[in-house]
Each structure stands twice: as C-alpha cells, then as structure tokens.
Amino acid sequence: MMNRQVPESRSHTDPEGRYVMALAALFAALLLMSAGCTGHDTLVGVTLAPVHTATPESPPTPSQAQAAHPTAMSLTGTLVYVRGGTLAKRDMESGETVDLDDGPIFGPLAWSPDGHTVVFSTGGDIRAADLDAETSWLVESSSLGGYMFRFSPDGKWVTYMSGERGRRIHLALVSGGDARQVAVFSHADVTAGWTPEGLLVYQESGQETTPAVCHVYDPESGSDSEADCTELQVVTTFQDSAAFDGERYLLTTVIRTHRTADGRECGDTAIAVSGPGNPSAPDVIFDVQGGHLYAPKWLPDGRVTFVLGGYGECGVEDEVWDIMIGLPGEEPERLAGPIGNADDRRQWYYGPDVRLRISYTVSPEGTHVAWIAGGYAARVSQIMVTDVATHTTQTLLETRADEAESRVDYLEHLMFRQVYWLP
Fold first, then answer.
1. In angstroms, rounded to a whole number, what is the distance separating the alpha carbons of residues 72 and 395?
2. Ranges of residues in the chain whose predicted pLDDT is under 50
3. 24-55+69-139+238-421 CATH
4. Where are the domains of the chain?
5. For residue range 204-242, what is the model confidence (pLDDT) as tens digits?
6. What is residue 343's three-state secondary structure?
C-alpha cells in the first residue's frame, strides 16, 4: 500500500488496449468498479470472448525484476501523437516526423485490432489513418461527429455513437463508402460490441428484463434480431481503465466513496489485479488514502506503471499527476512527471475524456515511457521520454506559445494532447 505522501518535484533533466477474454463475472466486476470507463461503455450480461493475439512471454519473478542492472536503452519503434488537432508519427530511431492528418481530432483515437489503423472524429466527419502507409481518408461525412468507436475483429468495420447521450448507433466500413445508421433510441443510451464472428451486438441501457436483451446485427446482410445477452460473446478492448497481460487483469477500481460539499459523489481509486481465480474480488495492489490512481499498465518484467492523480475531494484538492512504477503489493516509486494537460481545464476543447488528460504510453519492450509535459498555462508543451531503468528523462518534442499567433492558435495547432507507442 502507498502512504499519503506527494512525491517531491523533480526537473525534467533529473534521473493502446489488448483484446481480452474473461468470464461473465469478471466483466460484471469491471463494469461496476472500473473508474476509468464511462457510464454506458459496456454491454451488460455478455461474456468476453477470446481473440487470437500474440501471447506475451511470462514475466520474470519479482527478484529477477529487482536484480536487473539499470542500463540506459536506445529508443526504438514508432510514436504516434496528437499535436493540437493534428495526427502525426515519429520514427524513434531516425527522428523522422510525419504529419498524417490535420483533423482537427476531437476525443481519443480508436485503434484497430492490429494497432496500425486509427479512427477518429473531427467534431463532424469520421476519418481514419493507416499509420504504416502514412495515408488518411474520410470514413463518413457527418454533422454529429462520433465517439465510443469499436472496430470489428477483422478491422473491416467500425461502429460508433452519435447524438445527445449516445442514442444513435452507426456502422461504417473503415475504408469508407458504406456508412449507415443501425438504430435510434429516443429514451435510452446504447452500448455496442462485436462477436468473434463479426456480428454487431448492441443494447439499450436501463433494461428491467432478466436476462437482458441484446440486438444482433449482421453488417453484411443487414439483418437485425434479438437474443439473450447471456448467450453471446463479444470481443472488446479496455482503454486506460484496465490492462491484460495474458493471465491477469489490471484495473482501476473505486474502493471508498464519499460526497463532496456540493453533493457530488466521488470515490478514492486504487489499482487492483484480478485473474481467473478471483474474478469478482480483485486484489488491491496500490492504494493511497484519499488518493486517485489512474491508467495502469503492465511492463514485461512484471512491474506496473500508473498515474497518481492527486488527493482530496475528487482528487483535485492536491493534484500530483506523476507516473509511478512498482511491483504489485510493494511501495511504488515516482518514475516521471508531472503529466502536462492533466490539470488543464481547457482539455474539454478536444473532448472531456479523462484519458486525454493523463496521456502516457509504454514502449513495447517496456524500456521507456513517453508522456506529455507542460500545457496551456505553462506556455510550453513537450513530449518527454523517460528511461525505465535509469529514470532519466529527455525532451523529444517541444512547442512554445510564443510560436503561435494567438491563444487559440496555440490550442489548435501546437499543444500536445495524446501520445501512443505503436505495438
């Protein structure tokens, strides 16, 4: 467990979701306890199905992880980021940077099953980009925009919500050319997912029937039918609210709830781990009294990174926004931070999702963490890279407010908002 102590500030020079399989009970636990998920982002009563993905190697034992000699590692792979509203990528070895789409991007990027295609909303149109071919295109022209994107298992189709409170569900070919409205619900929210066979499953929230009823839509034939949700399996990805290493689930969970002075309900959040043996009772591995922890990620050596957001009322009385690292059940240490834009209230400009305010990413080998520093108030925005072994940090990219023509220009074209390391 963590003691309540804000890590001391350090200067910067001092040392995207897996497909998962689970039991229905685990899915219910994640639905109820995951603080990072939005209120209607999951299908009730549906079992998560296996998807054929590469199985990660078994992590070393804690003693092996602790005994590793800290040696600085070279940067490899490709980093994808959003600068202002522009999608861009950088080759970490050569330093070559390419702008892929000028958006403007609203909300988090949605990733294809292979991790090399993204779909996003520009506030109106729905667009996609191939990160390898360095091309982007229009998926659907729309005045409503979209959110809660879900790729089909084969990456061919994408479904998403639009309209007030997500009452419309849409379907489109990722390649473009075939977009349709699947259903409209005037008095309920809607959630959606995909079966392993490529059928779209969607559901009205607030159902009183037992078992819950799901709609099953075939994108090829256009047929729509009803089914018992408990008889269905769907594939899904967890964003920053949970992670999966092939055996264990890492999730953010609410462990203590209380009401604020203005009547809002808040809860202290902790990091927990769960597996097949305890699907409905995850073990808390990192906790701090009055604290708010977010965005857990596994490292290949068995350690965990997460963000310590802050303490107090809803985590904003005493904000920290540092990236922490440690072995499950042991006292973690500060790795890097504070993450910029985390406390920037202007992030609503490009979507209210908390994931945009705690943007950090781990390299596929687990050797580095990339994160965003600075922000609007600091008048400088940076993408930083921290070596996990040595805790040394370098500035990878930087933009400054004095390079912009106005405050709006800085927000729309220069400030870094999201960062992802390609798998």
1. 15
2. 1, 3-40, 50-69, 238, 342-356
3. 2.120.10
4. 24-55+69-139+238-421
5. 776 666 677 889 999 999 999 999 888 888 775 545 556
6. coil
C-alpha torsion 323→328→333→334, nearest 10: 0
Cβ atoms of residues 194 and 235 within 8 Å = yes
Buried-exposed string 252-268: b where 16+ CB fall within 10 A, e elsewhere: bbbeeeeeeeeeeebbb
* Location of structure tokens 């004095």: 402
CA distance 195 to 201: 7
Closest CA to 334 of 356, 310, 314, 306: 306
Residues whose CB falls within 8 Å of the CB of residue 181, separated by 6 or more in sequence, listed in order: 168, 169, 170, 171
Cβ atoms within 10 Å of 193's Cβ, excluding its own: 24
Q: Which residue has the tokens 């039918």?
A: 225
pTM for this prediction: 0.78
pLDDT, tens only, 158-204: 998 887 555 788 999 999 988 898 988 766 667 788 998 999 998 87
- At residue 362, φ and ψ (nearest 5 deg) are -105, 140
Q: Which of 367, 264, 384 shows the shortest CA–CA distance to 321? A: 384
420, 361 contact by CB (below 8 A)? yes
Exposed e or buried b for every residue in 114-146, given b needs 16+ CB within 10 A?
ebbbbbbbbbebbbbbbbeeeebeebbebebbb
DSSP 176: S
